[in-house]
Amino acid sequence: MNELIKVSHLSKAYKNHQVVKDLSFSIKQGELFSILGPNGAGKSTLISLILGLVKADSGEILVEGQPMDRQSIEYKSLISVVFQESILDAELSVKDNLLIRSYFYTNNWKKAEQLLKEKLADVDGLYLLNKRYGVLSGGERRKVDIARALLNTPKLLFLDEPTTGLDIISRANMWKLIHQLKEKYQMTIVLTTHYMEEARDSSTIVMLEKGQVVAYDSPKELKETYHCLTLEDVFLTIMEKGSEQNECISI
Ligand code: ADP
């Protein structure tokens, strides 16, 4: 697999608080990549750095082998992101929310409507078309947010804690959807989560703790290295004993 994003020695501090410390890892084209870590570990900051929303103090980010240029149109159309806080308007219908954004990419109202319907269908959300965004359930909102992020058919989709706050059924549906999208568009999907077990289907996991990488491997390799049956136990082991040891702590 080709490298889509390469992060080298990335650091970021707010005043004296070092939020991201010397991070290095790569995201390959077409993989499902999970950024794991407890609240405050630096996951959202890392995403903002990769998106160019926040400037790094030091380090480098290469996108398809080139230094990241956050102003470039190519970069903007390469990546989409769904943050936990939606950018859509609660007062507008789903259709009106998406229509304006869809028009940016098509310059034609009829095509814009076709495009938004296609992306809503991708997230099994066509039935939401004429509902007001503000009345949707958490799971439905997340679907529409993802449809919005798909309008430019990105190569890389970032999902910031896509299942946080969802009930168990909506969470299962969200995972089904993530896998469907990956298959359909051969898209690279990077997500953050603090639910360790949700990362089990990822090809690669990077675990963060206090802004540092404490583990970086496939779920299978991580479980083997630490002799654990679950990723949750891997994480607890690393937190309790540090990444140097290999005797699993089980809860
Ligand atoms: P996570 O997404 O893993 O929960 P964040 O990246 O949101 O972690 O935050 C990591 C740390 O950085 C937290 O202690 C948070 O308070 C701090 N932080 C994040 N953004 C800012 C900011 N703009 N100014 C100051 N501190 C910040």
Ends distance = 36 Å
Task: Say what the CATH topology of the largest domain is.
Answer: Rossmann fold
CATH superfamily of the largest domain: P-loop containing nucleotide triphosphate hydrolases
Number of structural domains: 2
CATH class of the largest domain: Alpha Beta
Bound molecules: adenosine-5'-diphosphate
Radius of gyration: 19 Å
What's the arrangement of strands in the largest beta sheet? Answer: 6-7-8-3-9-10
Order of helices and strands: EEEHEEHEHHHEHEEEHH
State the helix count: 8
Unreliable spans are: none
Query: How would you characterize the largest beta sheet?
Result: 6 strands, mixed
On the 0 to 100 scale, the average pLDDT is 91
Helix content: 25-40%
Proportion of residues in β-strands:
25-35%
Number of strand elements? 10
Explain what the structure shows.
By secondary structure, the protein is α/β, with parallel strands linked by helices. It folds into two domains: 1-78 and 154-219, Rossmann fold, CATH 3.40.50.300; 88-153, no CATH class. Helix content is 37%, strand content 25%. The protein has eight helices and ten strands. The protein has helices spanning 43-51, 73-78, 94-106, 109-122, 138-150, 168-185, 219-226, 231-241; strands spanning 3-14, 17-28, 32-36, 58-63, 66-67, 79-82, 156-160, 188-193, 204-209, 212-217. It starts with a strand and ends in a 10-residue tail after the last helix. The structure holds adenosine-5'-diphosphate.
Brief summary:
With 251 residues, this protein is α/β, with parallel strands linked by helices. It has two domains: 144 residues, P-loop containing nucleotide triphosphate hydrolases (Rossmann fold), CATH 3.40.50.300; 66 residues, no CATH class.
